[in-house]
């Protein structure tokens, strides 16, 4: 499958991606993640992208089209992919169509994470990320809690949710402790402030909403009720993709 996830900041694109990816063995291509990695590594691309990202504005079309073109060529992406946060302008959508046409493929479905702006500030300001795995948590909606160890705070230690919840608490404990020892703290994104969110939302309404119409007119758009709890959104996604 070749899928696009589209939605405002905090609508749940990154949260749903691992589930979709595992269900269909797809590669997950998130322009935001790639750009943040480039900024952290201070590559020429990262240096160019940083200013716009810090302000919550979109990076130039040429830049993101370039990195996406590269990324989609990876062997692991040949069977299908999830595009998370791309395309975000109509120009990007047109360029993407051109790239896919050259490969003789096309997008199967565009999942639109529809949600009211008013919910997003709480989601964004409560988000915490485990840097090496990219897993996303939320202090209220998806806390990284381990039974019996509630006293271990999210900022102090950075442990993350069990991958295998059926493991007994005793078998888990050493693992939790080892995470504490390696001390990988959860981090917050620099652009996850109310002020920067405001300009990210502006960019979404002005530049990205037309992309939703672009795919709507192609008849491949599916609207998801993204204000529902994560698990319910996952089953909505599964419904759309199996139909
Ligand atoms: P990007 O990284 O793409 O950020 P974004 O679009 O603003 O989206 P987010 O990652 O903030 O939201 P998400 O939908 O993934 O939410 P999540 O699942 O984490 O882009 C960053 C910047 O890079 C842009 O501003 C731009 O500068 C640049 N850029 C990127 N792509 C570009 C492009 N194509 N063109 C130009 N520039 C580009 O969820 C958020 C929180 O809510 C989490 O804590 C989560 O646990 C919680 N949560 C998730 N789902 C639910 C739920 N159903 N109920 C309750 N809580 C939930
Ligand atoms: Zn994201
Ligand atoms: Zn709007």
Automatic annotation (TrEMBL):
<dbReference type="GO" id="GO:0005524">
    <property type="term" value="F:ATP binding"/>
</dbReference>
<feature type="domain" description="Adenylate kinase active site lid">
    <location>
        <begin position="127"/>
        <end position="152"/>
    </location>
</feature>
<keyword id="KW-0808">Transferase</keyword>
<keyword id="KW-0418">Kinase</keyword>
<dbReference type="InterPro" id="IPR033690">
    <property type="entry name" value="Adenylat_kinase_CS"/>
</dbReference>
<dbReference type="InterPro" id="IPR000850">
    <property type="entry name" value="Adenylat/UMP-CMP_kin"/>
</dbReference>
<keyword id="KW-0547">Nucleotide-binding</keyword>
<comment type="function">
    <text>Catalyzes the reversible transfer of the terminal phosphate group between ATP and AMP. Plays an important role in cellular energy homeostasis and in adenine nucleotide metabolism.</text>
</comment>
<comment type="subunit">
    <text>Monomer.</text>
</comment>
<comment type="similarity">
    <text>Belongs to the adenylate kinase family.</text>
</comment>
<dbReference type="GO" id="GO:0004017">
    <property type="term" value="F:AMP kinase activity"/>
</dbReference>
<dbReference type="Pfam" id="PF00406">
    <property type="entry name" value="ADK"/>
</dbReference>
<protein>
    <recommendedName>
        <fullName>adenylate kinase</fullName>
        <ecNumber>2.7.4.3</ecNumber>
    </recommendedName>
</protein>
<dbReference type="InterPro" id="IPR027417">
    <property type="entry name" value="P-loop_NTPase"/>
</dbReference>
<dbReference type="InterPro" id="IPR006259">
    <property type="entry name" value="Adenyl_kin_sub"/>
</dbReference>
<dbReference type="Pfam" id="PF05191">
    <property type="entry name" value="ADK_lid"/>
</dbReference>
<dbReference type="InterPro" id="IPR007862">
    <property type="entry name" value="Adenylate_kinase_lid-dom"/>
</dbReference>
